[in-house]
Write the structure tokens for this entry.
Amino acid sequence: MDHLRWEMNPPKLRRPILVCAFRGWNDAASAASSALETLADSLEVDVLAEIDPEEYFDFQANRPTISFSDGAHRRIDWPSNTFIAARAQGAERDLVLLDGTEPNLKWRTYSETVVKVAEYLEVESVVVMGSLIAEVAHTLPVPITGLASDDSIVRELDLDRSDYEGPTGIVGVLHDRCRESGVASCSLWAAVPHYVAAVPNPKAALALSERLEQITGVAADISGLEDETAAYEEQIGRAVSADPEVEELVNRIEADQRNRGDAEPDVPSGDALAIEFQRFLKQRDSD
């Protein structure tokens, strides 16, 4: 595993699942990365390994930042991709978290590194969280859809295969590499309103966190996200009501969304994915 720096000897993990989120193109309104951060803050964690950014980033496009520690010592923070071992009291399994940043370069090599780490740590499956900009209303439940990258998993979970054609991000490339390597994988996607996509969306992060718990059986402390969601809805509501044109737009989107049935998506829903994915893992254990 080139360009990987281990920070500790990997511990023995209990039936781990690798959970990934990447800052960048697949992280609209920072929903996926916020959900992963909330999970990490809730569990007992140890940094396992870091992927060296030198091979995977254009530092003119994704510049490192300068910060000060203790108010005196200057530190350069590079784009990071960190593997973290996470344990929860009372849970039946452990997690490995990949707190990632979408690389600029060598996506195939990067994805191969992630898959090799997953195989080395003997993870049972890979779950990737993402968020996308969509024509949805902030007033309705966050649409969560689930997809699988492997044909056998699609059949096992009775999922609808996405018919999307177009540009993809590191999530799509990583899924394809998992498929080629025979690693079970699925994704959870939260849709965020396009008219407030420039600000963090704790409501979408909360929805992802709740669905992820149903899949993994590992709970995060979501009380902070719940408080942030209440404040978010209040602030967005005030801003929308103060602008008649925006209010008309939101009302139209809400009506269209209700007519489409996107308020509780079924292609497939996060709830259905959670139930079927748990069943899929149990079947793998018994085989």
